[in-house]
Amino acid sequence: MANEAVIGSFYGEKAVWLRSGKYEAALLPEIGANLVAFRDVEAGYKFLREPEEAEMDSFREAPAVYGIPVLFPPNRYRDGKFEAAGISYNLPVNEKATGNHLHGFFYKAAWDIVDQGANDQESYVVVRYVVDENDSVYSVLPHRFQIEIRYALSANGLAQTSTVTNNGDKQLPCLLGYHTAINAPFAPESSKADVTAHVTTGVRWELDERMLPTGGTIPMTAAEEAMKSPQGGSPYAESLDNHYSAAPVDGRNFAEVIDHRIGVKLVYDAGVNYKQWMIWNNGASAGFFCPEPQINLVDAPNVDLPDETKGFVLLQPGQSWNETSRLYTEKLA
């Protein structure tokens, strides 16, 4: 298949379809710039949890549990309030059960397509969301800034380059993560018993009854230790909604899923600039789990830890943060 980037449809929603060799991917610019599909069409693998046609209404209402949703700021913030660099923020409380703000403003928003195309090496699309005084987000995040994501599809898999740029004159809290929903298994004839997962986690952060970090750590369970080990463990051994530091191995910060029935490994090389992980598996009840890379600790501005430890980044005026992540497969020997 030739490399191409074309505007099309995904169950009635505007989509940018990327195609390269055996791979295809679909991005929905008007629903949070969600990269909702990444597939090996030759083998019939669907690597991400995709909404089926009958689930599209549910997806539009809760897109954060499909594909690769953009979280800014990621996860929870106590009462929606924090202070950074002398500015007080008051985000809406949108999770009534905990009284927190959850997941930010961009995963449902319409993004602009600023470039798309294909060449001999890849197909690609670039999307951008710009916040300034004319945007509704400015009322709660009073900064001029932009988030830009470039997705590229090639023989090497799917690459995601994320860039946050401070266009204003004040320091910007750079709080970014992705709620990446990976099918495990990704092969249609495999079962949950066929897969193991390995994530380069460090310590497990203690969370209080509101799912917010206390600043302390707690021991991992045996199931968590198994997933931390190079041998991996089942991502469904127990219910997971847990928070961890990232602990890169040989300079790489990654999650991987092995389908032992077919002898194929899916690698999610998130990048070392993501300093934290969340892992969520929807109560271990379904065939997907979410290894979620984040720059920062949940509720980072409110947690009494060093900025380096909690991954809290303040961008100076004119400064950018960026990282490239990649999803790809390997055949086991």
From TrEMBL:
Xref: SUPFAM superfamilies: Galactose mutarotase-like
The record's annotation in InterPro entries points to: Aldose_1/G6P_1-epimerase, Gal_mutarotase_sf_dom, GH-type_carb-bd
Q: Which Pfam families match?
A: Aldose_epim
Q: Which domain of life is it from?
A: Bacteria
Q: What is this protein called?
A: Aldose 1-epimerase
The record lists the organism as: Paenibacillus terricola
Q: What are the leading ranks of the lineage?
A: Bacteria, Bacillati, Bacillota, Bacilli, Bacillales
